[in-house]
Amino acid sequence: MDRTRPLPSRRRVLKGAALAAVPYALLPDARAGAQSRAVDYPTAEWQSASTANYTAADRPMDHAVDRVIIHVTQESYDTTLSIFQNSSKKVSAHYLVRSADGHVAQCVRETDIAWHAGNWDYNTRSIGIEHEGWVDEPSYFTDALYERSARLTAAICTRYGIPRDREHILGHYQVPGTDHTDPGPNWDWVRYIRLVNFA
Ligand SMILES: [Zn+2]
Fold first, then answer.
1. What region holds the N-acetylmuramoyl-L-alanine amidase domain (predicted)?
2. Cβ atoms within 10 A of the Cβ of 159, count?
3. How far is the CA of 176 from the centre of ligand 1 (A)?
């Protein structure tokens, strides 16, 4: 879907910037502008991945979504966004959660297939959530990161009818064929699943 949408013209970009202070309802093309930045999770900030880094699709119409896959970036939040925006990297995730405050960025629409699991079957059927941090540095796994990520996962589970358990909310390390270890032994799964269930 994103792939076929034309890039906004320079005129429109400039016009958008100049009219940033004008009340929303006065803009004739406000709806089209909002659509190009739409997110699936209301409080997420749209930070588009390069269209070269995911597969455009029409989920859940063409592929059922029945898993959430939890990752840890091994990079900073800003570096992760720039990797997703780099067309040569061939990697992306639907969401990225920032360590310090749990801020959520959406980088790929949920209708599309992000490239995060390293396994096509698991990519097609899952939503991928990256968390800023390193597997061997538990201080990155803050209360805010757990709580806001859990709320995001809970919303995804509600939307697709995914059970809120460890059979359906997986670590990257559980994906068949992967050599990744994230989110690693410091990730508190008991706490996380509890938060998802009470979000
Ligand atoms: Zn991962």
1. 54-184
2. 14
3. 13
